[in-house]
Write a structure and sequence with these properties.
Blueprint lengths: L5 E5 L6 H12 L2 E4 L1 H12 L4 H6 L14 H10 L3 H6 L1 H8 L5 E5 L2 H5 L5 E6 L2 H14 L6 H17 L12 E4 L5 H17 L1
Parallel strand pairs: 1-3, 1-4, 2-3, 4-5
Helix pairs in contact: 1-10, 2-4, 4-9, 8-9
The structure holds 2'-deoxycytidine-5'-monophosphate (DC).
Length: about 200
């Protein structure tokens, strides 16, 4: 496809957005940007002692390859730097130009359908109960050798949800025109099939 077509996928931590976004991007042959990685890269620099706004303003694509961006500590730091308006505005242009690239783009995050790409051609809001999300994240972390407890993972998920949802700048919430997908009782293949069907309906418009 030569024209721009933006698919915005938002939702809370560990709802399945990442897996879903990759599968949707592969299905349509679109480029994919995990915008959480931008905040994680800034959060990682904060943990190294850098000023968060400076880190956001000087971020490079190499920073997105840094090790340990998936760790629970970096996730919490990402959620903390994400409340800072100047951090968010420093990351805005990169996300918007990625979204309008020729050939189509899938962006996943918290505010893609509401703030970054309010005119996205298709918007999904992917969610699941906090318990189900904590179970999934715990299984991933345990498989990668982490010793973190399930109770700690659940507490982290709830803390991050509250911070992401209650902040003044670009809070986590579904866009009015987003299609809601609750993956609590759904396997990933069903969620992907549902997302693809919803997007195909928009593509046909
Ligand atoms: O999607 P994730 O878990 O990798 O995101 C890490 C944190 O980054 C999340 O807790 C809040 C922040 N974030 C955000 O504020 N806006 C986005 N579009 C993506 C992530």
């Amino acid at each position: 496809m030569a024209r721009a077509f933006t698919i915005a996928i938002d939702g809370p931590a560990a709802a399945g957005k990442g897996t879903l976004s990759k599968a949707v991007a592969a299905h349509f042959g679109f480029a994919h940007l995990d915008t959480g990685l931008l905040y994680r890269a800034v959060g990682a620099k904060l943990l190294l002692g850098m000023d968060a706004v400076m880190a956001a303003r000087t971020l490079t694509t190499d920073d997105l390859q840094a090790e340990d961006l998936r760790s629970p500590e970096v996730a919490q730091a990402a959620s903390k730097v994400a409340v800072i308006a100047d951090v968010r505005s420093a990351l805005l242009d990169f996300q918007r130009s990625f979204a309008r690239r020729a050939g189509g783009a899938v962006l996943d995050g918290r505010d893609i359908g509401t703030v970054i790409c309010p005119n996205a051609e298709a918007k999904l809001f992917v969610t699941a109960s906090a318990e189900v999300r904590a179970d999934r994240r715990f299984a991933e972390l345990a498989a990668s050798g982490s010793a973190i407890s399930r109770a700690q993972v659940l507490a982290d998920v709830k803390e991050r949800d509250a911070r992401d949802r209650d902040r003044a700048e670009a809070p986590l919430k579904p866009a009015a025109d987003a299609i809601l997908i609750d993956t609590s009782d759904m396997d990933i293949d069903t969620a992907v099939a549902e997302a693809i069907a919803a997007i195909e309906a928009r593509l046909a418009d």
